[in-house]
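Researcher: We're teaching a course module on how sequence relates to structure. For the next exercise, students receive a sequence and then see the predicted structure as tokens, so they can try to spot secondary structure elements on their own. Here is the exercise chain.
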Amino acid sequence: MIAFWLLAAALIAAAMACLLPPLLRQGRRGAAERDAVPVADCYRGQLDDIEADLNAGTLAPARGREARDEVARRLLADAGLAPSARQVDRPSPLLAAVLLAALPSAAIVLYLQLGNPLALWRADDAAHAHDGNSEPSAAQIEGMVNQLALRLRSQPDDVDGWYMLARSYAALERPADAAAAYAKAVALAPEEAALRADYADVLASVDGGRLNGAALEQVRRALALDPDQPKALALAASAAVERGDTPEAVRQWERLQRLLPPDSQTAARIAANLAQARSSAPLDARGDKAAGAASVAGQVRLGDKAGRTPLPDETVFVYARPVDGSRLPLAVLRARVGDLPLAFVLDDSLAMRPDHRLSGAGQVIVEARISASGNAMPSEGDLVGRTGPVPVGRTDLQLVIEGTVPPSAAGGPGRAPR
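Model: And here is the predicted structure for the students to work with:
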């Protein structure tokens, strides 16, 4: 952005360098005054010749007077033209000052009206501003968004512009304006499933978070265009939960889970949703309640006696391990400190190995650990809490994280102090 304005300033300076010198130059006035001297000498010589002819008698007195009158008329005519010629070539400092003030201003105004100032704010400029602790203020961001909205009035067919405007309004927490911009974008690109999913999300925000009516219709259209659109699947599952249709929610979550990386945080949350939905469902697909029986559930929270205050982005591991034998967890759920207090469900879908699952254990110890490093192995200073042994099938567990992993326990599953 800085390079653009420097180049623009250089071009304006070059234009002014071409325009101003002719207006400030003295012109040919001095030359005209110098030329007036030989012209007067010429006429004086003609008069001297006439006088010489009269004295010699070769020219009659009447003809001499006519000749002198003719010379005088020509001299007066030339003398009358000289002032106007000198006046034309006078310098014009006032006009030069007007151009100096008006030309740069006119160039900037025309660019703001006809150009695209938002294009100057590129990702590298934002990163540079962040590194220099000079992030754009809320007022500057609002100004850029308003400028984009003004440009779209003259370019209403710019689908990318409407999409950018809608996302900007959503980021500024203006869902009604975002919905109006998404409507424009969807009208221009009706076959874009992701666009319709984003539109549905904003419509739900406008309706107080409810996924029904227009929002649900956009979700259905998105899935009709792309049955594997991740956001549309997540919204469809949430809508099913709202209306109490647990089997439909499970179906949508299962489809979404197959599309996600197995080790991603989103996949872990979907797995937890599935476990909770299956445990609360009257019957699973096989017609029994085995899914609910092979699970443990409850809530984990940060206690008041924790050794330190963790950051919101630090990792929370919730896991169940056997009472005896291997210390490898039977099921692991990953979340963030910002999610606490967290309702959790641990079941076979969160198993680390297919032959090492909750359904094969009678009792388990359930632990929760906060890791600043995000490592699966406990480290000194991690915050932990635990409960158990408890029978598999318990759904009312309460875990309080307020212990600290001592140096001797680092490198193995975290232990709460006794």
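Model: If you want an answer key for the exercise: Residues 296-409 form one domain. The first strand starts at residue 295 and ends at 302.
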